[in-house]
Amino acid sequence: MPTDRQSSIALTLVPGVGSILLRQLVSYCGSPANVFTTPPARLLRIPGIGEVTVRALLRANVQHEAEAILKRLDALQATALFYTDADYPARLKGLYDAPALLYWRGNGSLNTSRNIGLVGTRQATDYGRRITAELVEALVPQGVTIISGLAYGIDIAAHRASLTHGLPTIGVMASGLDIIYPNVHQKSAQEMLAQGGLLTESPPGTKPNPHLFPARNRIIAGISDAVVVVEAAAKGGALITAEYANNYHREVFAVPGQLSQTFSAGCNKLIREHKAQIYTSPADLIDALSWDLTQSATPTARTPPSLPLDLTTEESQVLALLRQHTELHVDELSWQTQIPMNRLAALLLNLEFRGFVRTRPGKTYAAVYA
After folding, report:
1. Residue 262 DSSP SS3
2. What are the distances in angstroms from CA 33 to CA 6, 14, 38, 160, 341?
3. For 175, which of 141, 166, 208, 289 could close a Cys bridge (C-beta 3.0–4.6 Å)?
């Protein structure tokens, strides 16, 4: 009998089943393994699931392939992180297009308190590499994790500066964990495993095809608190990362450059169109993220009251999640808590009757503080 871990991988291999449909299936069926054993008639009653998806699930022979992937991960000393796992990046969980499954290799953490994405052109200038190195060094006292894409130019400069100064650094890849691209960055990638790690949504054996790079860029943006574009042409991957960061309500900074320089055009464009703040020094970043404020400076009045003691485990889970957000859609609640929709509806109704939760338009819910 396939395990939930194997089945979670298998679901990502079913043609036509993306992250959103996958979460919908798991939410209603209760677990990844249950999706494959649920009768077709019941699957068809799930919102968003049609006959094409059901036929794909029935015909797809993906469990054997998923089992092989698990063996390859073991050989790499890597792991698969499903979106319900505790080690899955918390910053991604609230994003509508977050990968349902990630592959991770390394000794670092994906949930450190401060993450900065540092990206830019593959044809970095000496100026760009210098700014990158100076920024990384200045962030050492802040205990930051540096996120980038392991590419030529600014990306690898960010990773190597992090290694030099002892900061954790994570390389987000557009390939499987066993295919380092470009190959000349093998040594740096190996060093990063001890001081951070490598992350991808592609299973082992996946080559770095062009369509995978924009998807990689959204992960860089999603797991970062802020993204700094050091150098970029008028078009390119760094600007795609900045666009995703803006969509995810992350802070975006761009390093200004000379008007005559090709690889300053993208940064100047971001600043001109108010899609990025101008970066002039590390203090810009630290001030914008309020890292200069100590924890004790946070007003205690903002601390929510303790959860009631007479709640069930699932009720406490739902209420705690709602207290972390202004409001959440019922589908999002089901996805993040992994409570099936029928049981979740009863829990929410009970919490509403007791005055802990209020219903808002569009099937969204919010916590009521005592």
Report:
1. helix
2. 8, 14, 9, 41, 17
3. 208
